């Protein structure tokens, strides 16, 4: 079974995560899929296979070098798909030798994947694309990563002439709801470093991500009959709106890119008596990140100066930029870049404008940059993945394993 066959099989599993269940894994489908993968790894002959009660599956491909010590490296992917769109009854289709025109995903519902709206499609002319039927997401995020890792292990087993050290692999639940690394047993995984295969387009290599926090701002109002409200009513919704417009209007997701941070208003729930607004705060630079949080504190004080006791602010850090944990071990980035070039993939080192399990794992003691899995337009009906990108990702994994062993021979 090759990487495409595996992927087409894996997307049939409904593994959508759900942040409201307060369980790990958050949905039963993730454990069902993990159990399927556990059997597959057993059939391939991998060792030290463990699947814990929280749905974390780990295994080892033993090294084939006995005359020297080689670092143990890891490859990680997540089993869940995004809650943003259904992952049930996924019906993938292969568009052979894509010609650069519109792809009709669903004729009945008039759903079309068009280069007019998604110009990146044109980068994959003459390649073979796997697309959805327009009613679900595809699940390349991150079942492509799983297929690539397992296919790479299968390839190494069948090609013992490729020398490598011990390779640890792990498939975890609930990445899409920010909990993928929470119960990841780094000590049990026992790798010197690892790579998440969870990036997007071919060539992506990422070791920088946002510092992240969530801010909950509550406004307490006072309701009085509107006909008799003068100097008595305090409309919490109006005060919340006043707070929102005090933030810099251009420092929002729709106005930022690259290394620019932002405040993102994600929800408003309110009545005259009580309004709660929620922001996520993002910035790559730690000092700017701290200043953003202090700005919210400053605005809350201003509101309370005008309306005493009205505003309550709660800020919680979520994750931090893994760059500070990767820079002391930059050789792991060098290996990944060399591996990509060796298989004909120009590396694209870019910051992640989001989070990754690798960031949290890096702060837990497992340096873990992120490598492309090949998919595009994640989390929606227009998701697609070029088969050639999946094949290259598999080759990169194999080459990283080979280079790690080769480099250990040179030291």
Sum up the structure in keywords.
411 residues; alpha+beta; four-stranded antiparallel sheet
Architecture overview:
The protein has 411 residues and is α+β, with helices and mostly antiparallel strands. The protein is built from 10 helices and 17 strands. Strands 1-2-8-3-9-16-10-15 form an 8-stranded mixed sheet, covered by helices on one side. A 4-stranded antiparallel sheet has the order 12-13-11-14. A 3-stranded antiparallel sheet has the order 4-7-17. Helix 1 packs antiparallel against helix 3. The longest helix has 24 residues, at 387-410. The relative contact order is 0.18.
Short structural description:
Helices cover 31% and strands 22% of the residues.
Set out the fold topology:
Elements: H1 3-10, H2 28-44, E1 47-51, E2 57-61, E3 73-78, E4 93-95, E5 103-106, E6 111-113, E7 129-131, H3 140-158, E8 167-172, H4 186-189, E9 193-199, E10 204-206, E11 211-220, H5 236-246, E12 262-270, E13 274-283, H6 286-306, E14 311-319, H7 323-326, H8 331-342, E15 348-349, H9 357-363, E16 370-372, E17 384-386, H10 387-410
Parallel strand pairs: 3-8, 3-9, 9-16, 10-15
Antiparallel strand pairs: 1-2, 2-8, 4-7, 5-6, 7-17, 10-16, 11-13, 11-14, 12-13
Helix pairs in contact: 1-3, 3-10, 8-10
